[in-house]
Amino acid sequence: MRITQIEQKEFTGSFISIKKADIRALVFIQRHMRSDALDSIMRFFTRLGNGGILWLLTAAVMWTMPRLRRCSVSIAVVLVVGVLTGNLIIKRLSSRSRPFDDYSSIRPLVKPPKDCSFPSCHSMSSFACATIICCFSVPLGAIALSIATIIAFSRLYLFVHYPSDVVVGVLWGIIIALSTNWYLSNFVFEIPMAF
After folding, report:
1. Burial class of residue 47, CB neighbours in 10 A (0-12, 13-18, 19+)
2. What sign for the dihedral angle of Cα 170, 176, 177, 179?
3. Which residue in 39, 62, 168, 188 could disulfide with 68, CB within 3.0 to 4.6 Å?
4. pTM > 0.85: yes or no
């Protein structure tokens, strides 16, 4: 792993300061935080975010509890909105390459994703779901936010996203969650649920 190649790479084009900050953060993680134990932990947490599997399972469990059924429905809705806006629209418009594509001297610690880097949809879906959970239960939401934070960080640690991908993913996820919660609370959940 030759991190000096990253530091010496030419920076051109727009958003130069963001690119430099992104690289500095990734270099810091690779130099000062990597360990065999953390490699395994970060792989585990990133897998929890694959395809929103953790959040789908959470929604399924909440569905069995009448008090949390609305939360379950809300999680499903934010995941769909996230896929439509993040995966199908923003990623395709951005066409941003992944860090391991730009800096081939460092390989990712997971199977390299084939889609674009911006935004981080693991971060987006995790924070969207965690924020929704907070709207229904602060204690459960605090746990969900902790897990979402680790999932988001794992994307940097594993060298599959730039920090700006993750930050925008987190912010977009929170926006999706709050707007979806507002909409459902005002226009859907007023109607008595028949289940």
Report:
1. middle
2. positive
3. 62
4. yes
Give per-residue pLDDT as tens, 42-70. 999 999 999 999 999 999 999 999 999 99
Using an 8 Å Cβ cutoff, are 91 and 118 in contact?
yes
As a whole number of angstroms, the distance between CA 102 and CA 22 comes to: 12
Report residue 110 as tokens: 């997971």
Which residue type, as a one-letter code, is found at position 73? V
Task: Answer yes or no: are the C-beta atoms of 81 and 176 closer than 8 Å.
Answer: yes
Q: Which of the four pLDDT bands, split at 50, 70 and 90, describes residue 13?
A: low
**Alpha carbon 123 to chain centroid, angstroms:** 1
Could you give the percent of the chain with pLDDT greater than 90?
66
Report DSSP state, residue 192. P
